[in-house]
Specification:
By secondary structure, the chain is mainly alpha-helical. The chain is built from five helices and no strands. Helix 1 runs antiparallel to helix 2, helix 2 packs antiparallel against helix 3 and helix 3 runs antiparallel to helix 4.
């Protein structure tokens, strides 16, 4: 009886240790992968917002330029020299390309709403450019509408980013509860 008692205690201890080790490792790996995935999503949202902001910055400049031309008032809060304008245009063009790249990656890392918002903006941008190219819209109206579109996109993306990046993970105790109950049941079964 002493030997059987010793073996059952060793078995119960070993089995419970293995089960606890398994669930602990599984929890740690799941958490690691969730955090890595969250980091990738957060990084893409940051890139997205930076691209939109660069487009917005250029749009504000062009809007103010058109307003000053239209009003005849040449002094603005800030003036750009030719080199700064060239840099602004290059930054804008790069941001648009980045926005297109992010749009292509959006099904993988962003939610469906962000994908729709980006695609809608890019479509509006293309339509606006086409209208301007065929003289269907005046430049000041095109610049104003472009600025409105990018501001609306930025606002919508910021709302989506806040929703998506909010941590809604279960607590550690809640995640371990099924495993703990399973271990308790196994130990009770072994004792019988």
């Amino acid at each position: 009886m002493g030997f059987e008692d010793f073996i059952s205690k060793v078995l119960v201890g070993s089995l419970s240790g293995l089960i606890i080790a398994y669930f602990t490792a599984r929890y740690a790996l799941d958490r690691f992968y969730r955090e890595k995935w969250w980091d990738k999503r957060a990084s893409l949202y940051v890139q997205l917002v930076e691209s939109i902001y660069a487009i917005k910055k250029a749009s504000i400049h062009w809007y103010e330029e058109e307003i000053s031309k239209k009003s005849g008032f040449s002094e603005r809060s800030f003036e750009f020299n030719a080199e700064q304008i060239k840099a602004l245009e290059a930054e804008h063009d790069k941001a648009v390309i980045d926005l297109m790249r992010i749009s292509d990656l959006s099904p993988l890392l962003l939610n469906e709403k962000c994908k729709e918002l980006i695609e809608s903006y890019l479509e509006q941008r293309t339509n606006l450019q086409s209208q301007f190219d065929y003289d269907a819209i005046a430049i000041d109206d095109a610049v104003s509408e472009s600025l409105d579109n990018i501001v609306a996109l930025l606002d919508s993306i910021m709302i989506e980013a806040r929703k998506e990046l909010r941590s809604d993970h279960k607590s550690f105790k809640e995640q371990l509860k099924p495993g703990i109950e399973y271990i308790r049941d196994k130990i009770k079964a072994l004792k019988k």
